[in-house]
Amino acid sequence: MKAKIHITPKKAVLDPQGKAVQNALAQLGHGNITAVHVGKYLELELAPGAERDATLVSLHEACRRFLTNPVIEDYQLSVE
Amino acid sequence: MQFAVLQFPASNCDQDCVHAVQVLGHSARLHWHKSQSLAGADAVIVPGGFSYGDYLRCGAIARFSPIMQAVAEFAAQGGPVLGICNGFQILCEAGLLPGALVRNRSLQFRCEMVHLKTVRHDTRFTSEVPPGQLIRLPIAHGEGCFYASPEELAQLNVRGQVLWQYCGAGGETTDTFNPNGSVENIAGVMNERGNVAGLMPHPDRAMESILGSTDGRWVLESLVKSLQRN
What is the pTM of this model? Predict the structure, then answer.
């Protein structure tokens, strides 16, 4: 089982990296993109037999406390 | 006075901070991040650097080091804590200071002298800054853009938690003189209780005239004065 976590900057936070990537894309001919948000993707490999619901609860806690900074980031977590 | 200067893997201003304290005639001891005690120190400095290689987020891993538990307890008892640059980032990540530091708006690592306006002079970190006088300090950071949500920012202003703002040589706190995109040009803040502060510029690198500025002394002298008053 794997946990997949997508972390993105909150919309209200300045994202100069996304803007720079968007500008570069435009230079490469991809001018029809209105915004780019650069985030992070974490893949966690879970020990065999991990209980899904309990894993979700503990990983949400890890996301809030450590893996993301709720002041500046949002995240999506899935276990599959 | 006895200062504790924390030392994380990849801290690189730890020795500068020890020296800065010694320049003022006080003593400082380095505390490795795995230590669980501040050994009776009167004040704590969390120095600059790139703790844990800035992995995940700046300061995100360092904040869970054993020594940070001791710092949190020290701060809860009212002990003064000053975070400089990466130290500021660590204190924000630890929730000891409000807001967060994100990538500079320019995407550049900015390494230059800046002017700072001191917003309040009645704090443990600013009392010795002469009123009306700007501070000149060096900055050296890639992720020093201070962010707080509009609601939190309003609270910071109401509670008087903003200590320093980037400005021009004439004191203008305009966008032109904002080196990293910080909201309202904020360079440093303190907690509500007034015993924990952080700033991105380096007072520790502006303690002697050979370094181009001695204005950093005002910040550390303020801290020393506050300890002597207690």
Answer: 0.95
